[in-house]
Amino acid sequence: MAENGTDCDQRRIRMSKEQHNGNFTDSSMLSERKRREREERLNIVLWKKPLVTLQYFCLETLINLKEWTIKLWRRRGVLVCVLLALAVLTALYYIQGAHQQYVRYMEKKFFWCAYWVGLGILSSVGLGTGLHTFLLYLGPHIASVTLAAYECNSVNFPEPPYPDQIICPDQETTEGSISLWTIISKVRLEACMWGAGTAIGELPPYFMARAARLSGAEPDDEEYQEFEEMLEHAETAQDFASRAKLAVQNLVQKVGFFGILACASIPNPLFDLAGITCGHFLVPFWTFFGATLIGKAVIKMHIQKLFVIITFSKHIVEQMVALIGAIPSIGPSLQKPFQEYLEAQRIKLHHKSDGAVPQGENWLSWIFEKLVIVMVCYFILSIINSMAQSYAKRLQQKMYSEEKTK
């Protein structure tokens, strides 16, 4: 990007932050007001102001529904085409015939892919806090397939979505027929769909920054304001966090497609900044989304799959359980539940769940289930708090606009 364009952006940032009500005012007063308003919004949470939070959440939901309805009405031609396509698909679904086997196959694949894409979107869309669906869903799924593959010496389980549990096939297979590539191929579809979902979840920061740049308005978004302040103070940045953010911004801005691809291909908590940077500097949509999709759904997902599969390969798991047992004093007591859990899984894989399974639920499974419930509940609460704070932001903006008209 040209340096003149960057200089113009920095001058625009300084002008917009100093100009208020048509006259130049003290920038410290404006920053103090924004800080105070932000603190007020952050206090609108369920555990502090439950009634106000629920009220604001409901009002923000109604406003969003109204806005979406208006947008759909403006695109009613596209909406009619989509409804007609759905009507045709519904008719094909219910009319009996030879095509039903293909319909059932496509239905199963569609819902399986949609499930993982949805989890990927939830992981990166950032409604208050992302739901870490890789740790809660995809990672354990890959681990269970890996353990089952080594135990069964096969990956010929039923096609996804699996039944309540993975069951080893009845056919005899030769020892050592399982390879790393075989397991990668077995979980490739769900992993790539999850990665594609995370790429879709990165689009809101891009569109927000792009719309702000094209309209010339300054959105009331903390991440975007932080990005503009970073541009303004780029030359004086000293701390590691600021330098890291600046490095990501420079990489994306100067290298373009391959810079975005590099940032998306590795676990990178600063990738939201890459989306804001691309939107601010008007990087073409397909350049940004194409690089993000390839990086997250192909390169990054294969790295993560390899890590999980290697970690949960049979000999690694046995070594880890042995190391737990070697811990002085508490080792044997900690080792026992892990051994019981692995043995229970082996029995289930070989159709022997009616007997020999230890009575009572394993505490590892119990802890993981409760962890999933807690994380999902916290994610729902964060959405409620985030939407309530968005409505509070609307009220503050309305008050600010009324003061400007006086």
UniProtKB/TrEMBL annotation:
TM region(s), chain numbering: 77-95, 115-138, 251-267, 273-294, 306-327, 363-384
Q: Which domain of life is it from?
A: Eukaryota
Keywords tagged on the record: Membrane, Transmembrane, Transmembrane helix
Q: Which residues form a coiled coil?
A: none
Q: Which residues form the signal peptide?
A: none
This protein is called VMP1 protein
Q: What is the native source organism of this protein?
A: Sylvia atricapilla (blackcap)
What broad taxonomic lineage does this protein's source fall under? Answer: Eukaryota, Metazoa, Chordata, Craniata, Vertebrata
Q: Which gene encodes it?
A: Vmp1
